[in-house]
Amino acid sequence: MRRALSGSLSAAGAASPRPRxxxxxxxxxxxxxxxxSLEQRPLVPPSAPSQRARGSRWHSGGAASAPQLTRxxxxxxxxxxFIVERGYTPEVAEGVxxxxxxxxxxVSPGGxxxxxxxxxxxxxxxxDAGLDPLAKSVELELARQRGREVIHFTFVPPGGxxxxxxxxxxxxxLKDVAExxxxxxxxxxxxxxxxxxxxxxxCSTCQVYVHPRWSAKVGEPGDAEVDMLELAxxxxxxxxxxxxxxxxxxxxxxxxxxxxxxxxxxxxxxSHKVVVERT
Length: 279
Ligand code: FES
Known about the structure:
Elements lengths: L4 H6 L20 H7 L33 H15 L4 H12 L10 H9 L10 H15 L4 E7 L7 E6 L4 H7 L2 H10 L14 E4 L4 H4 L4 H7 L9 E3 L12 E4 L3 E4 H6 L3 E4 L2
Parallel strand pairs: 1-5
Antiparallel strand pairs: 1-2, 3-4, 3-5, 6-7
Bound molecules: FE2/S2 (inorganic) cluster (FES).
The site of FE2/S2 (inorganic) cluster has 14 residues, from loops.
Protein backbone atom coordinates (compact mmCIF):
# COMPACT_ATOMS: atom_id res chain seq x y z
CA MET A 1 0.00 0.00 0.00
CA ARG A 2 2.74 2.37 0.70
CA ARG A 3 6.27 3.00 -0.12
CA ALA A 4 8.92 1.27 1.85
CA LEU A 5 9.75 2.65 5.24
CA SER A 6 13.38 2.87 4.38
CA GLY A 7 12.47 5.19 1.57
CA SER A 8 10.48 7.39 3.85
CA LEU A 9 13.26 7.59 6.31
CA SER A 10 15.79 8.55 3.75
CA ALA A 11 13.62 11.51 2.93
CA ALA A 12 12.92 12.38 6.49
CA GLY A 13 15.76 14.75 6.95
CA ALA A 14 14.12 17.64 5.27
CA ALA A 15 10.87 19.45 5.87
CA SER A 16 8.22 17.85 3.73
CA PRO A 17 6.45 20.21 1.36
CA ARG A 18 3.09 18.88 0.35
CA PRO A 19 3.11 17.03 -2.95
CA ARG A 20 1.18 18.52 -5.80
CA UNK A 21 -1.93 17.04 -7.31
CA UNK A 22 -1.35 14.42 -9.96
CA UNK A 23 1.75 13.33 -8.20
CA UNK A 24 1.23 10.08 -6.47
CA UNK A 25 1.31 10.85 -2.79
CA UNK A 26 4.13 9.03 -1.17
CA UNK A 27 3.21 6.97 1.78
CA UNK A 28 4.79 5.24 4.64
CA UNK A 29 4.79 1.53 4.20
CA UNK A 30 4.40 0.20 7.67
CA UNK A 31 1.69 -2.40 7.58
CA UNK A 32 3.79 -5.32 6.44
CA UNK A 33 6.54 -4.78 8.91
CA UNK A 34 4.75 -2.98 11.68
CA UNK A 35 2.56 -5.85 12.70
CA UNK A 36 5.40 -8.05 13.83
CA SER A 37 7.31 -5.11 15.21
CA LEU A 38 4.36 -3.98 17.30
CA GLU A 39 4.36 -7.20 19.23
CA GLN A 40 4.76 -6.30 22.82
CA ARG A 41 8.32 -6.15 23.82
CA PRO A 42 9.42 -5.11 27.29
CA LEU A 43 10.56 -1.54 27.59
CA VAL A 44 12.19 -2.10 30.93
CA PRO A 45 14.81 -4.65 31.76
CA PRO A 46 13.77 -7.78 33.61
CA SER A 47 14.17 -7.39 37.34
CA ALA A 48 13.64 -10.89 38.69
CA PRO A 49 16.80 -12.27 40.27
CA SER A 50 16.60 -15.37 38.13
CA GLN A 51 16.93 -13.21 35.07
CA ARG A 52 20.05 -11.52 36.33
CA ALA A 53 22.19 -14.33 35.21
CA ARG A 54 25.85 -14.10 35.80
CA GLY A 55 27.46 -12.33 32.92
CA SER A 56 24.16 -10.84 31.86
CA ARG A 57 24.08 -7.16 31.03
CA TRP A 58 21.52 -6.81 33.81
CA HIS A 59 23.93 -8.05 36.38
CA SER A 60 25.88 -5.20 37.89
CA GLY A 61 27.36 -7.06 40.80
CA GLY A 62 25.36 -5.51 43.64
CA ALA A 63 22.02 -6.80 44.78
CA ALA A 64 20.57 -3.28 45.07
CA SER A 65 22.19 -1.89 41.97
CA ALA A 66 20.07 -0.54 39.16
CA PRO A 67 20.18 -2.56 35.97
CA GLN A 68 22.69 -1.30 33.47
CA LEU A 69 21.11 -0.48 30.16
CA THR A 70 23.05 -0.90 27.01
CA ARG A 71 23.52 2.13 24.79
CA UNK A 72 20.94 0.75 22.40
CA UNK A 73 18.41 0.37 25.16
CA UNK A 74 19.08 3.88 26.39
CA UNK A 75 18.69 5.14 22.85
CA UNK A 76 15.39 3.32 22.48
CA UNK A 77 14.01 4.70 25.74
CA UNK A 78 15.19 8.22 24.90
CA UNK A 79 13.56 8.03 21.47
CA UNK A 80 10.35 6.81 23.02
CA UNK A 81 10.40 9.62 25.60
CA PHE A 82 11.00 12.19 22.88
CA ILE A 83 7.94 11.00 20.95
CA VAL A 84 5.78 11.07 24.08
CA GLU A 85 6.96 14.63 24.74
CA ARG A 86 5.67 15.51 21.31
CA GLY A 87 2.20 14.56 22.48
CA TYR A 88 1.82 10.99 21.28
CA THR A 89 0.70 8.18 23.55
CA PRO A 90 3.32 5.82 24.95
CA GLU A 91 1.74 3.03 22.93
CA VAL A 92 2.15 4.97 19.70
CA ALA A 93 5.65 6.01 20.70
CA GLU A 94 6.60 2.40 21.22
CA GLY A 95 5.08 1.49 17.87
CA VAL A 96 7.10 4.20 16.13
CA UNK A 97 10.28 3.04 17.82
CA UNK A 98 9.50 -0.57 16.92
CA UNK A 99 8.97 0.38 13.28
CA UNK A 100 12.20 2.32 13.15
CA UNK A 101 14.03 -0.56 14.80
CA UNK A 102 12.80 -3.10 12.28
CA UNK A 103 15.37 -4.68 9.98
CA UNK A 104 15.65 -2.72 6.80
CA UNK A 105 14.41 0.53 8.29
CA UNK A 106 17.73 2.15 7.54
CA VAL A 107 18.21 3.41 11.08
CA SER A 108 21.65 2.61 12.39
CA PRO A 109 22.03 0.90 15.76
CA GLY A 110 21.86 3.49 18.50
CA GLY A 111 20.52 6.08 16.07
CA UNK A 112 16.85 6.04 17.06
CA UNK A 113 16.88 9.27 19.06
CA UNK A 114 18.68 11.17 16.33
CA UNK A 115 16.23 9.83 13.78
CA UNK A 116 13.04 10.73 15.67
CA UNK A 117 14.45 14.19 16.43
CA UNK A 118 15.15 14.70 12.75
CA UNK A 119 11.70 13.41 11.80
CA UNK A 120 10.12 15.63 14.41
CA UNK A 121 11.24 18.73 12.54
CA UNK A 122 10.63 22.09 14.13
CA UNK A 123 7.16 22.10 15.68
CA UNK A 124 7.58 25.75 16.73
CA UNK A 125 7.13 26.69 13.08
CA UNK A 126 4.67 23.92 12.28
CA UNK A 127 7.25 21.78 10.53
CA ASP A 128 7.15 18.01 10.65
CA ALA A 129 9.66 15.95 8.73
CA GLY A 130 7.95 12.59 8.87
CA LEU A 131 7.20 11.83 12.51
CA ASP A 132 3.52 12.68 12.34
CA PRO A 133 2.71 10.51 9.30
CA LEU A 134 4.59 7.64 10.87
CA ALA A 135 2.76 8.08 14.17
CA LYS A 136 -0.55 8.22 12.27
CA SER A 137 0.27 4.97 10.55
CA VAL A 138 1.05 3.39 13.89
CA GLU A 139 -2.23 4.67 15.33
CA LEU A 140 -4.13 3.17 12.44
CA GLU A 141 -2.31 -0.11 12.73
CA LEU A 142 -3.10 -0.25 16.43
CA ALA A 143 -6.73 0.57 15.72
CA ARG A 144 -6.82 -2.16 13.12
CA GLN A 145 -5.38 -4.65 15.54
CA ARG A 146 -8.11 -3.75 18.00
CA GLY A 147 -10.68 -4.64 15.39
CA ARG A 148 -12.01 -1.19 14.64
CA GLU A 149 -14.69 -1.32 12.03
CA VAL A 150 -13.70 -1.10 8.37
CA ILE A 151 -15.98 1.08 6.25
CA HIS A 152 -16.16 0.49 2.51
CA PHE A 153 -16.98 3.22 0.05
CA THR A 154 -16.57 4.01 -3.64
CA PHE A 155 -15.56 7.12 -5.51
CA VAL A 156 -15.94 8.11 -9.13
CA PRO A 157 -12.71 9.68 -10.41
CA PRO A 158 -12.67 13.10 -12.09
CA GLY A 159 -14.23 12.94 -15.53
CA GLY A 160 -16.26 9.85 -14.72
CA UNK A 161 -15.55 6.18 -15.08
CA UNK A 162 -16.18 3.14 -13.01
CA UNK A 163 -16.44 3.68 -9.26
CA UNK A 164 -13.26 2.76 -7.42
CA UNK A 165 -13.53 0.73 -4.26
CA UNK A 166 -11.85 2.08 -1.19
CA UNK A 167 -11.95 1.46 2.53
CA UNK A 168 -10.96 3.06 5.78
CA UNK A 169 -11.50 2.65 9.47
CA UNK A 170 -14.46 4.22 11.24
CA UNK A 171 -13.42 7.63 12.45
CA UNK A 172 -11.03 8.30 9.60
CA UNK A 173 -11.75 11.25 7.35
CA LEU A 174 -11.48 10.87 3.59
CA LYS A 175 -8.27 12.85 3.88
CA ASP A 176 -6.94 10.29 6.37
CA VAL A 177 -7.81 7.50 3.96
CA ALA A 178 -6.02 9.30 1.13
CA GLU A 179 -2.94 9.87 3.24
CA UNK A 180 -2.71 6.77 5.38
CA UNK A 181 -5.21 4.30 4.00
CA UNK A 182 -4.54 0.81 2.76
CA UNK A 183 -4.96 -0.56 -0.72
CA UNK A 184 -5.06 0.54 -4.33
CA UNK A 185 -8.25 2.54 -3.80
CA UNK A 186 -6.57 4.72 -1.19
CA UNK A 187 -3.58 5.21 -3.46
CA UNK A 188 -5.78 6.41 -6.31
CA UNK A 189 -7.80 8.61 -3.97
CA UNK A 190 -4.56 10.23 -2.84
CA UNK A 191 -3.85 11.28 -6.40
CA UNK A 192 -7.01 13.37 -6.46
CA UNK A 193 -7.32 14.70 -2.93
CA UNK A 194 -4.38 16.99 -2.47
CA UNK A 195 -5.43 18.26 0.97
CA UNK A 196 -2.98 21.14 0.67
CA UNK A 197 -3.83 22.71 4.03
CA UNK A 198 -3.55 19.44 5.97
CA UNK A 199 -7.17 19.55 7.02
CA UNK A 200 -7.57 23.01 8.55
CA UNK A 201 -10.27 23.98 6.05
CA UNK A 202 -8.16 26.52 4.22
CA CYS A 203 -7.66 25.06 0.74
CA SER A 204 -10.77 23.29 -0.64
CA THR A 205 -8.58 20.84 -2.56
CA CYS A 206 -10.26 17.97 -0.73
CA GLN A 207 -13.75 18.73 -2.04
CA VAL A 208 -15.89 15.72 -2.92
CA TYR A 209 -19.45 15.39 -4.18
CA VAL A 210 -21.59 13.08 -2.09
CA HIS A 211 -24.08 10.98 -4.04
CA PRO A 212 -27.56 12.36 -3.34
CA ARG A 213 -28.58 8.99 -1.98
CA TRP A 214 -26.12 9.48 0.86
CA SER A 215 -26.57 13.15 1.62
CA ALA A 216 -28.88 12.63 4.57
CA LYS A 217 -26.60 10.10 6.24
CA VAL A 218 -23.50 12.19 5.65
CA GLY A 219 -25.18 15.24 7.10
CA GLU A 220 -24.78 18.95 6.56
CA PRO A 221 -21.43 20.73 6.61
CA GLY A 222 -20.75 23.19 9.38
CA ASP A 223 -20.54 26.95 8.82
CA ALA A 224 -16.76 27.03 8.42
CA GLU A 225 -16.92 24.17 5.95
CA VAL A 226 -19.65 25.92 3.98
CA ASP A 227 -17.50 29.06 3.81
CA MET A 228 -14.64 27.10 2.31
CA LEU A 229 -16.87 25.15 -0.05
CA GLU A 230 -18.13 28.41 -1.52
CA LEU A 231 -14.58 28.99 -2.75
CA ALA A 232 -14.15 25.45 -4.06
CA UNK A 233 -14.05 24.41 -7.70
CA UNK A 234 -17.59 24.13 -9.05
CA UNK A 235 -19.27 23.39 -5.72
CA UNK A 236 -22.59 21.62 -5.55
CA UNK A 237 -25.23 21.29 -2.88
CA UNK A 238 -23.82 17.84 -2.20
CA UNK A 239 -20.23 19.09 -1.76
CA UNK A 240 -18.28 18.23 1.36
CA UNK A 241 -14.68 18.67 2.34
CA UNK A 242 -12.89 15.35 2.46
CA UNK A 243 -10.95 16.47 5.51
CA UNK A 244 -14.21 16.90 7.42
CA UNK A 245 -16.22 13.95 6.18
CA UNK A 246 -15.52 11.08 8.54
CA UNK A 247 -16.33 7.46 7.92
CA UNK A 248 -18.85 5.89 10.25
CA UNK A 249 -20.70 2.57 10.35
CA UNK A 250 -23.83 4.16 8.90
CA UNK A 251 -21.76 5.22 5.87
CA UNK A 252 -20.92 1.66 4.84
CA UNK A 253 -21.30 1.69 1.03
CA UNK A 254 -20.94 5.49 0.72
CA UNK A 255 -20.65 6.80 -2.84
CA UNK A 256 -18.76 9.97 -3.66
CA UNK A 257 -17.42 11.67 -6.77
CA UNK A 258 -14.23 13.63 -7.21
CA UNK A 259 -14.68 17.04 -8.89
CA UNK A 260 -12.94 17.72 -12.17
CA UNK A 261 -10.71 20.38 -10.65
CA UNK A 262 -9.63 22.01 -7.43
CA UNK A 263 -9.12 25.58 -6.29
CA UNK A 264 -6.20 25.72 -3.96
CA UNK A 265 -7.15 28.60 -1.70
CA UNK A 266 -4.34 27.79 0.67
CA UNK A 267 -1.75 28.68 -1.94
CA UNK A 268 -3.87 31.71 -2.75
CA UNK A 269 -3.29 32.97 0.79
CA UNK A 270 0.37 32.16 0.81
CA SER A 271 1.31 33.10 -2.74
CA HIS A 272 -1.18 32.89 -5.56
CA LYS A 273 -4.25 30.87 -6.27
CA VAL A 274 -3.59 27.60 -8.01
CA VAL A 275 -6.43 26.13 -9.98
CA VAL A 276 -5.80 22.56 -10.96
CA GLU A 277 -7.83 20.88 -13.64
CA ARG A 278 -8.11 17.18 -13.07
CA THR A 279 -9.68 16.22 -16.35
S1 FES B 1 -7.56 19.66 3.35
FE1 FES B 1 -7.72 21.79 2.99
S2 FES B 1 -9.83 22.18 3.16
FE2 FES B 1 -9.66 20.05 3.46
